[in-house]
Specification:
The protein has 20 helices and 22 strands. By secondary structure, the protein is α/β, with parallel strands linked by helices. Strand 2, helix 6 and strand 3 form a beta-alpha-beta unit. Helix 7 runs antiparallel to helix 9 and helix 9 crosses helix 10. 45% of the residues are buried. It holds the Pfam family Nucleotid_trans.
Length: 630
């Protein structure tokens, strides 16, 4: 479905752990080189999954980062218009009035106007996900794909897309314009709307590439899909264990994860039309069936044998439908992309990423795409009032690599980083700056059930740069909390922010490096005189008055970067402000999950772990312990 919650996106896909690849053994050797090069060779973390890939891959991915200016036409080349009379996408209408509602009704004629090579690419949603939909369209048009349509589930979205020049049709859903939340009755209604849509379009005779709006196209998928002309349906999956190491279809009888209906391609064949019709009838007859579960149940009614020796297709559903499973390494889930970086390890170029396997709902999905520099934010996101604060995380090698990768070593590494981030949050609050979060290094994966640290058979490297939602409660960090109880809010950005091509020149060139020094050392005193252009020495453990006095001179500097956060700031002298700050940041961290054979098996992160001498990472032992450490 379109919007899965982190624990539910993959809950039906628990792997059987039957396959263990030699790739993992080779990865152990590579892991040390990877860690050292990422931590010690540069302060510029381009991406947690592949700094080298982002800088060297073809322009398809990098071009997708062009700025999307809200309420204006984006500064991108216009795709070819393949039907005479159709405006190029992003070209605003030359009228002041909305056309009649009948103009937007789904019909064969409407779809025909946007089809190219008999293929139409479709997504749908409501106004709550306007920025995701614009991002989805932007990535497609940056790939010179214009044969797309967006289904609007409410009038507000329909009008917004029309005035931006995006091909849109009315789904007649009359849906709420807010985020519906995973598992709600409205969420399930959205799933049924998708199935009804597929069943409606297939009889028109066009190939349909159906997508959820929480996915992004990184490379034109149409040539790949055309490699399998015999396939009735090509579907993505929640597979987390590789079955192939090249760009062939996943091996169907080795795939243990569920088929994921966030990305799938339908050809208008007799078998596919029959499947779509039965799937629709199944869901309309029972409103308790989740659309993805229903699809998997139908497809697996008959499963096998292979269609032939070479294609990778399998007979499924009624024994006549030819199904192919898109390789999870390049049609990526949130796990194979953000955690395993499977495409990078196999030296492949990803076609798509779908933000599943994450833990912070819609806000977490948006942040994941920002970390990947695959979300087109408006210019103001990259030039915030008050400027930015960043720091270089200094992590000892021993915390990253020494000892077994287990609960103790994972939390020693995480706690070391949390203490620095806590200090950075305080300084950002004090100076009223936006904190650029550092990359988070994890030794253990996070899932929603007990596991041995990483998924057995996966190619997850240890340690790895983990998504922010593995540790932090992004929903809470973005929530407007009471000033009286929690003090001022603290805005933040993703760790890849300073490497984003959308960062404007005036931000890149306005920079101050702050080198912390011991107060008793020579030349270390509180002064706003820079020792070199753009470099300031600043005493450790300075109080808030000193911070304000010194940094007030640099209020117009866009980026202030500290050499470290170790002993940078002892805390607020005002007890009330310190208490409010603590109340806020204690709520910022979540849980690690989960210890095997334990109920409950989760372990709470604690922002103030260092103030508890006996603190150890273990699951709650009593109901009283099973609560966040507030």
């Amino acid at each position: 479905m379109v919007w899965g919650n982190g624990c539910q996106d993959g809950v039906y896909t628990r792997p059987l752990f039957l396959v263990f690849y030699a790739t993992v053994a080779a990865g152990i050797v590579f892991s040390s080189l990877y860690v050292f090069s990422a931590v010690y060779s540069s302060s510029n973390f381009v991406s947690g999954f592949s700094s080298s890939w982002f800088s060297s891959t073809s322009g398809e991915f990098n071009n997708s980062n062009s700025t999307l200016i809200k309420d204006q036409t984006p500064n991108v080349s216009q795709p070819d218009v393949h039907n005479k009379g159709e405006r190029p996408i992003w070209e605003a209408p030359d009228t002041k009035n909305m056309p009649s509602p009948s103009t937007f009704r789904l019909s064969k004629e409407l779809v025909q106007r946007h089809v190219k090579d008999n293929v139409i690419v479709v997504t749908f949603g409501n106004y709550a996900f306007l920025d995701f939909i614009l991002n989805w369209v932007k990535h497609l048009t940056d790939l010179d794909l214009s044969n797309l349509l967006v289904g609007a589930m409410d009038t507000k979205l329909l009008e917004a897309l029309y005035w931006k020049g995006i091909p849109v049709f009315d789904m007649g859903s009359h849906m709420s314009t807010v985020d519906v939340g995973w598992g709600s009755s409205t969420f399930h209604k959205m799933g049924r709307e998708k199935v009804i849509l597929i069943d409606s379009i297939l009889p028109y005779g066009f190939e349909l590439l159906m997508c959820d709006t929480d996915m992004v196209w990184l490379k034109n998928p149409l040539p790949y899909l055309a490699r399998y002309p015999e396939a009735d349906v090509l579907s993505s999956s929640d597979q987390v264990i590789p079955t192939v190491v090249d760009d062939k279809l996943d091996i169907w009888n080795e795939v243990t994860g569920a088929l994921n209906i966030g990305i799938f391609h339908w050809r208008p064949t007799r078998a596919s039309k029959k499947l779509a019709k039965e799937w629709k009838e199944m869901l309309l007859a029972d409103d308790k069936i989740w659309d993805q579960n229903g699809f998997n149940e139908l497809v697996r009614k008959k499963y096998g044998p292979s269609v032939d020796e070479d294609s990778g297709l399998v007979y499924a559903y009624d024994g006549n439908l030819k199904l192919g499973i898109l390789p999870a390494s390049i049609f990526c889930s949130g796990h194979t992309f953000f955690v395993q970086a499977m495409y990078q390890q196999f030296r492949l170029e990803p076609y798509a990423v779908h933000t599943t396997f994450q833990y912070a709902g819609t806000k977490g999905k948006r942040h994941r795409l920002r970390e990947a520099m695959a979300f087109d934010d408006p210019p103001e996101y990259f030039d915030a009032p008050g400027g930015y604060l960043s720091f270089k995380p200094s992590i000892p090698k021993s915390l990253l690599l020494d000892g077994e990768h287990d609960l103790d070593t994972h939390f020693r590494l995480m706690n070391y980083q949390l203490k620095q981030i806590r200090t950075a949050l305080a300084i950002a609050s004090l100076l009223n700056r936006v904190l650029i979060m550092p990359p988070l290094w994890c030794r253990l994966d996070k899932l929603w059930y007990g596991h041995p640290g990483v998924l057995q058979g996966s190619v997850t490297r240890q340690p790895f740069i983990c998504p922010l939602d593995h540790v932090f409660e992004i929903n809470v960090m973005l929530k407007e909390l009471s000033m009286e109880e929690f003090g001022p809010g603290i805005n933040f950005r993703e760790y890849s922010f300073l490497d984003n091509p959308l960062l404007p020149k005036q931000v890149k060139e306005s920079w101050l490096d702050v080198q912390l020094c011991k107060q008793e050392s020579e030349g270390c005193h509180a002064s706003n005189d820079t020792v070199l252009p753009g470099v300031l020495k600043f005493p450790k453990d300075s109080n808030e008055d000193t911070f304000k006095a010194i940094f007030s001179k640099f209020k117009d500097v866009k980026v202030i970067q500290f050499s470290t956060m170790q002993d940078a700031f002892p805390g607020f002298s005002d007890k009330k402000r310190e208490e409010k700050f603590r109340n806020r940041v204690k709520r910022y961290v979540g849980i690690w999950c989960c210890v095997e054979n334990a109920a409950p098996g989760h372990v709470f992160y604690d922002m103030y772990w260092d103030e508890k001498p006996d603190w150890k990472p273990h699951p709650p032992r009593t109901p009283e312990e099973d609560r966040p450490p507030l």
